[in-house]
Amino acid sequence: MKFGIYPRGRAATTCSRPDDPAAVGALVDELADGRPLVIREYVHFLGRDPDPETVAAIGAEKELDRLTMPDQWYAENGRELDLVASYLPPAADLDGWLAFLDTVIDRYGHLTRYLQVTLEPNFPIPLIDGSSPGVLDALTQGIPYARAALDQRELHHVEVGFSVAEPPEWLGGDGAFWDHLAATPAAAFADHVDYVGLALYPDAFSPVAPKGRPGDVASLTAHAVHHLRDDCLPRAHIPAGVPIHIVENGSPSGPSRGEQAQSESLTEMIHTILDQRTTANITVYELFGLRDADSGSTEPLGSLGLVTDTYRRKAAFETYRDLIHRCGRPPH
To answer: Does residue 115 contact residue 150 with C-beta atoms inside 8 Å?
Structure first.
């Protein structure tokens, strides 16, 4: 299995300070130790005339100029760029979205290994794509459009997919989303999907049972994986041969939990995913993320990092580094 990381210190609108590229580079190199590593980044379509306040709130001002690191960094030392194109316009705008995909591919296609078209379109909360008008068309028409655009530019190595959030009972229900995909002919959508991403935060936003009991971190993780593989993807005409990527997974270390609890939770989740990787066809695991968005925040989004917002290592850093070294692909 490939391992990966989101390198920025931002979670939605939470970000206490700018990223330090030198610190990011050193920490990522230490995690990988010469092994291939997937690097997750995000760019956002906010409509043709984006609201400046929204742009600033999510840190999207210069996304098409550069990502967290210089371009060449993403192509060095076995790194692979997983680039998310997020759809967040205030009104439905399919034409603008498809033009944005062209722009993203022209700018970053040569660096990209995985292109994710929309972010969690089944998850209807603010600043997540599921809340955006026209998101289902953005997904179902965006996937085949991106595939054709990549092939036209001879970027055949880029895999195209989409991501969903955790099972419906954690979301208030997402049946309408899967019904829409079920009603879409495979030739128009599913046949163009190279992978499906899953975002997993089982203990970040609600209490969980103690270890070893039903409803603990391990059982919730396994349930999420198999609910997607066994229930949702067949409805959407997506076969078992299409792999699942765990594209976001994290656990906070906030004041009510602590850094050791975060490390233990990540260990449980990642080992559960490793146990399911063959039966569920999981080929990529990406941690969210490298750095805390705001270590002083009491909100879970603030403390999901392996290091604090000043880049001090937490226990989880060594936990993840050791897992990559034991279970990841060997160094080149």
So the answer is: yes
Domain at 193, CATH number: 3.20.20.80
pTM across the whole model: 0.97
**Residue 332 located in a structural domain:** no
DSSP class of residue 307?
A: B
CA distance 26 to 55: 29
CA distance 131 to 59: 19
Tokens 């499906």 sit on residue: 196
Domain that holds residue 266: 2-327
* Class of residue 208 by CB neighbours under 10 A (exposed 0-12, middle 13-18, buried 19+): middle
Q: Is residue 238 part of a domain?
A: yes
Taking the C-alpha atoms of residue 63 and residue 311, their distance in angstroms, rounded to an integer, is 23
3-state secondary structure at position 287: strand
Return the DSSP state at 9: S
214 within domain boundaries:
yes
Q: Are residues 277 and 283 in contact, defined by beta-carbon separation less than 8 angstroms?
A: yes
Residuewise pLDDT in 10s, the chain (332 residues): 999 999 999 999 999 999 999 999 999 999 999 999 999 999 999 999 999 999 999 999 999 999 999 999 999 999 999 999 999 999 999 999 999 999 999 999 999 999 999 999 999 999 999 999 999 999 999 999 999 999 999 999 999 999 999 877 777 889 999 999 999 999 999 999 999 999 999 999 988 999 999 999 999 999 999 999 999 999 999 999 999 999 999 999 998 889 999 999 999 999 999 999 999 999 999 999 999 999 999 999 999 999 999 999 999 999 999 999 999 877 76
How far, in Å, CA of 131 to CA of 33, rounded?
A: 39
> For the chain, how many structural domains are there in total?
1
